[in-house]
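Interim report, section 4.2 (structural modelling).
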Amino acid sequence: MQRLFIPVLILTAAMFAYSPVAIASAPYESTMLLVQKIFYYHFPAWMALTAAVTVCFVSSGIYLFKGHAWADRLGFAAAEVTVIFGMFGLVSGSVWGRKAWGVWWQWDARLTMAFLLELIFIGYLLVRKYGGPGSEKLAAAMGIFGGATAPFVYKSVDWWRTIHPKTSVMASLGETSPEMWYVVWFCTAIFLMLSGLLLAARMRLETLRAGLDRLYLAAED
Amino acid sequence: MFFRIALLVLKKDFAIELKSYEILSTTAFFAVSCVAIFSFAFVKEGQAVEDAAAGILWIAIAFAGTLALGRTFERERYGETLKALLLAPAPRPAIYLGKLLGIVMLLFATEVLLVPMVAFLFNAPLFDRPVLLLALLALGTIGYAAVGTLFAAMLVRARTRDVMLPILLYPITIPVIIAGVRGTSALLQSPPDEPMATLWIALLGFFDVVFVTLSLWTFEPLMTE
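Predicted structure of the assembly:
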């Protein structure tokens, strides 16, 4: 884990530096033209969020039922990463919406659900910070309920009539526009690696903090 | 056995509540004052803003629910009786179910007062489709109370329980409130949009299954110290 960190960091940075070139070389979308380029960071941000939510959901479950301290720390780290990418996804979506739909925000099903998911994980962080002793379990419950909400966010565009594009856009992109498809997944790989790096860094920080607490306790005895 | 324990817990809460009516009367009064505040905000020149009734009804239910949840578990904390309840040789999910039934019945009692009041004050034809309205209220209340009971029970040990309950509860239960509000406002249209209301009822049923299952599943490890 430790040895992989630096090489992956370098690789991510190099790919990230190249990504504007790749995005510029992708063909223009027929109706939105230049505006559609936001998509190459918008979709990957939500993919990174999905990965982080999944990690948080699973590790919260492990912590609740098995009580491993590492699972609690991983869930905490994943919740922070979720909030960061959710924020990025909401902001990038809002900027895109301003140009594509003419408004910054629209109360449609997908946007509302995504906003709720972000709220749930901000709630998770608030509980961790201000909940006092025993808040780890509360936070784990938030992680589980937040994880249960995530599929609703994903499917909301297919269940309701919304102005947000449906999930089928991504599924058919490989056939309709292979060049776009390739660039999107290139950027998604960057964002997934970035979320992995952030998770590893946060995890290490929490582990060190737990170790420090142990030392303090030992010194007091 | 499982349901007998749940009913026993319910009976216990019922007996305590019947002695003073403390939670029921305060919750109902709070809900009524909520509606009064909204009526000042949403009535213009003697006429209620269109579609406001459904939202007001559900917001009052949600706020009153938070109050009821907080008070119910505050009572358990004060007497340290939750610990005793958890020590009982009974399956934990049964205890959860008993508490949940208690909260749901309390909220139903509040709604009996609230619904006619909203219908009366906002001139809303809430009783045109009584079965659909009943289904919306029942499923919405169960979904809201399912998550609320779980979090309120956990928060008994936390120092900041008063602020934490709404912070945790609202983001998770907003889908339930949305479904309730949209379903109710579909019923309030003239003529009532029955297919739309049925769709939201189905969705509420789905949320209830997810929330109750998750709560029953996590109550045991969450309440273990």
